[in-house]
Amino acid sequence: MSSAFYDVIIIGAGLSGLSAALRLSHFGKRVAIFERHHFPGGLNSYYYRDGELVDVGLHALTNFAAADERSAPFNAMLRQLRLKRNELELCPQNYSLIEFPTAQLRLSNDFSEFSAAVAQCFPQEAAGFADLVEAVRCSDCYGAMPPGLSAQEQVAGYISSPLLRSMLFMPLMFYGNPCVADMDFKQFCIMFHSVFLEGMARPKKGMKAIIDRIVKRIRDNGGELFLANGIVALHGEDGQLQEAVDEKGRSYKAQSFISCIGARETAALCQMPLVELEQSRAGEIGFFESIFYLDRPAADFGLHAATVFRSMQDEFRFAPPSDLVDYQSQVYCLPGNYAGCEDIPAAKQLRLTHLANPQAWLKLDGEQYEQAKMQVVQKQKEILAESWPQLVQSIIAVESQTPKTIRRYSGRENGCIYGSPDKIHSGKTTCQNLILTGTDQGLLGIVGALISGISMVNQHLF
Question: Which pTM was predicted?
Answer without folding.
Answer: 0.95
